[in-house]
Amino acid sequence: MKFRIRFSPIPLVIMAFILLGYKDLLPVLALAPLAFFSYFFGTIFLVVIIGFLVYYKVGGIEGLLLVALALIFVESAYLDRENAPREHYLIVAVAALLAIPTYVLIAGLSIFMPKFEVTAIAVLILISLYLFSRMVTSD
Amino acid sequence: MREFYPTGKALQLLLALWLGVLMAFFALRWDMIYLTLPVIWLFFIAVAFFKPKLEVKIERILPHDRILEGEIIEVKLVVKSNERIPSLKITEDVPEGLEVVEGSKEFLLSLKRDEVRELSYKIKVRRGVHEFSKIKMSYQDPFGFFKKDRQLELYDELIGVPLIEDVITPYSTKGTKITVGPLPSPRIGEGVEFHAIREYQPGDPFKVINWKATAKIGKIMSNEYESERKVDVVIVLDAGYLGANVIDYSVRAAASLMLDCLKNGTSFGLLLSESVPLWARVDYGKRHFFKCVDLLSTAKPDKNNLIAYQVEHLIRTRFPANAQIIYVSPLVSEESRKALKMMYHYGYKTIVISPDPYSALKPKSNEEDLAIKILDLRRKAYLRKLSSYALIIDWDVTKPLKTAIAEVVRL
User: Fold this and answer.
1) Do A54 and A24 form a contact (C-beta atoms < 8 A)?
2) Which of A30, A114, B176, B244 is 20–30 Å from B268 (CA)?
3) Please, which residues have CB within 8 angstroms of residue B371's CB and are 6 or more apart in sequence?
4) What Cα–Cα distance (Å) separates residue B369 from each residue in B46, B241, B365, B381?
């Protein structure tokens, strides 16, 4: 098992700082160190944090930012182990944080197009997710 | 082989994504599905911007196509990329008989567009024909989500030729060919070996007149000399599996003898006795020598050895009459001993170079040492029995062949 830490603590520290405002979510951080050891534990950490956010209804830009930071942290821990070049960290951070403008766009659309309800957007995301999964896993 | 496929890491993240979706639905907070957006974006970026075409050209450079066995050579791979590849793994398909002694057959590199990179590794060449057939390339995107494998057909052949020692070919026959050579011949003619004195015949050159005998007898007397001629040499190599541990020595001996024949201008042929016998007809010259060396390079121990049958068939159809046969065999199988008797019965003069298979073994225990000694004694008894059929050179492979020949044959 490879173990190397370079840049991955940065998103973790930011996330911990944000989580200080959400006492209910703080226990999630107990799982975070496991992500340094393997990617599998990292994904468990990610699932748990999404579960907590859904359960405690912490959504909006803050919820999304927390998921994005958790994802950046998990991916950075992987890149640390692989001794990846710095630009890869940047690409991961940009890709994950692109979710925020996307959310803002969706939220904006729901205001300006009343018929186009949030449910429809959720279904749209689900369908695109399904198609995307098919595309990724097909040989 | 799948060309483009997700890695275990991608599947784990995808599973996390679906679990997130399910949690949102089961908690009746389906609108919070947007929390999965960062993961979707990451996948999208990886697929959209880091899906490679693997436009790479690779060239393999070998220093030479024929290399002496045991030598260490450097194999170079020149890689040229026509696109930017952040992470490319190249695996060279090193043939089984070659041993990588320096560097690795796997390379991990990052290439810019139009970048040319030279990679190298060193291998120790063993005897045989070694075929490089392909190079495997594996691309992994920077995030480790997807893999793309490609196999590049890149054929190169490397022949590990046997080591050659400077030896003198032993002969047990006289020169029978018309051409002048190193062997005494039954014919009388020009030569250096004195044969007899006879009365001067018109046409004899003055230099052959024996003036002392002329003065004594009162008639003009001339010296007669033995002419020196060549003989065809046929090398028979026994590749039986019982002598597998000395086959390399047998091959080296055969190659060394052929080189000596080449130097003397003697014609030689080769029978490599494997399950399918390889026969190189008797011929002269460098080209023929290299052809035989290439045949020898391919020699490998064979289980289905029918050497006696093969020798009998070739004696009847291909072996030149009165040829000198040099039989390279450890003489440990019944078949190989039968082959020797066959050569004798067909009237061929044979010299056996018999590499001792037990001299190459290093016993690890007293019991093993005793077993080797018993087997060696049995072999020696066979050699004694067979010595009436041919001149046998029992070669302890820890010593040079030259010494073994000199111990038996007065050169």
Assistant:
1) no
2) B244
3) B363
4) 65, 22, 6, 18
Q: Give A-chain residues touching B2 at CB under 8 angstroms.
A: 139
Looking from the CA of B96 toward its CB, the CA atoms found within 13 Å total: 0
Q: The pTM is what?
A: 0.64
C-beta separation of B266 from B283 below 8 A? no
Kindly determine whether residue B37 and residue A99, on different chains, have CB atoms separated by under 8 Å.
yes
Indicate whether B210 pLDDT > 70: yes
Q: Taking the mean position of all CA atoms in its chain, how far away is CA B235?
A: 16
Residues 6 or more apart whose CB falls under 8 angstroms from that of B337 comprise B331, B382, B386
Which residue reads 């690409």 in tokens?
Answer: A91
Share of chain B above pLDDT 70, in %: 91
Mean pLDDT, residues B258-276 taken together: 88
Q: CA B11, CA B16: separation in Å to the nearest integer?
A: 9
| A40 near B CB under 8 A | yes
How confident is the model at residue B304, as a pLDDT?
67
Q: Which residue from B15, B43, B86 is facing A132, i.e. has the nearest CB? A: B43
pLDDT at residue B87, rounded to an integer: 77
Give the nearest partner residue to B38 out of A68, A128, A132, using CB atoms: A68
- The predicted complex's ipTM stands at 0.88
Beta bridge partners of A22: none
Contact between B391 and B172 (Cβ < 8 Å): yes
DSSP codes, B194-259: EEEEEE--TT--GGGB-HHHHHHHSS-EEEEEEEEE---EEEEEE-BGGGGGGHHHHHHHHHHHHH
**Can you tell me the distance from the alpha carbon of A108 to that of A102, in angstroms, rounded to the nearest whole number?**
10
3-class DSSP state of B51: coil
Q: Which strand ranges, in their side-by-side order, compose the sheet holding B349-355?
A: B278-283, B268-273, B233-238, B324-328, B349-355, B391-395
Using alpha carbons, select from B168, B164, B393 the residue that is nearest to residue B260: B168
Residue whose structure tokens are 């692989």: A82
| B320 — pLDDT class (breaks 50, 70, 90) | confident
- Walk along chain A (139 residues) and give the pLDDT tens digit of each residue: 567 788 889 999 999 999 998 888 889 999 999 888 899 999 999 999 999 999 999 988 999 999 999 999 999 999 888 777 788 899 999 999 999 998 888 888 777 765 545 666 667 777 777 777 776 666 5
- State the first-to-last Cα distance of chain A, in angstroms, to the nearest integer: 29
Q: How far is B120 from chain A (nearest CA, A)?
A: 23
Collect all residues with Cβ–Cβ distance below 8 Å to B298 and sequence separation of at least 6: B128, B129, B272, B278
